[in-house]
Amino acid sequence: xxxxxxxxxxxxxxxxxxxxxxxxxxxxxxxxxxxxxxxxxxxxxxxxxxxxxxxxxxxxxxxxxxxxxxxxxxxxxxxxxxxxxxxxxxxxxxxxxxxxxxxxxxxxxxxxxxxxxx
Length: 118
Hints:
Blueprint: H1 4-20, H2 24-29, H3 34-56, H4 59-89, H5 93-117
C-alpha cells in the first residue's frame, strides 16, 4: 500500500540520490561513457536498498527493489542522457531540460510502481 510517507520517501530520497550523490564526472560523462553511467546507477541503487530496509523489513525485498531500480534507472538514463546531451551541446537549454524533466517523471513512476508491486 502506497502511503503519504512512501510518496514523500520516493520524492526526497530520489532527489538526494539522483542529484546529490551523482558526481560532476558522472553527470558530464554518463551520456558517452557506460562506466560512468554504471557507477551512477550502481551507487543510486545501492542506496535505495539501504533506504528501503526500514520500510520492507526484508532484505530480499529491498534487494529486489534495488535490482529492479538499477535496471530501470540504467535504461532510462542511457537514453535520456544521450538525448539531452544533443540539446545541451546545441545550447537548446529549454529542450534539454524538457528531457531532464521527462527523465525525472520516468524515475518517479518506476519507483512508485516498484513500491506498489513489492
